[in-house]
Specification:
Helix content: under 10%
Oligomer: single chain
Strand content: over 45%
Order of helices and strands: EEEEEEEE
Number of helices: 0
Structural class: mainly beta
Number of strands: 8
Number of domains: 1
Radius of gyration: 13 Å
Largest sheet: 6 strands, antiparallel
């Protein structure tokens, strides 16, 4: 299983750095939401049900607990995850 990635943009280049999300870790996740037709950022929590994997059609899937909506969501495609300072 791949580790979640922390994406950093520096001088026009994108760097993807793997990091470990432990159960109970809070983070902000940004991704393109087809439902809204735009990029969104959500406050998330890594739980025992959270998963990061590649779909059959080779897309990134990131299943997390949405702290704002109090339910599980799936981010698809290019995903940026940034740990929160309130952990």
């Amino acid at each position: 299983m791949t580790k979640p990635l922390h994406v950093i943009n520096y001088e026009g280049k994108e760097y993807r750095i793997p990091f470990d999300l432990k159960q109970g870790t809070k983070f902000n996740v940004t991704y393109f939401a087809k439902k809204y037709g735009e990029f969104i950022t959500r406050a998330g929590l890594w739980t025992e049900k959270s998963v990061e994997r590649i779909s059959k059609d080779n897309k990134n899937l990131f299943i997390y607990f949405d702290l704002d909506e109090q339910g599980y969501r799936t981010a698809v495609g290019d995903i940026t995850v940034v740990p929160r300072k309130d952990n």
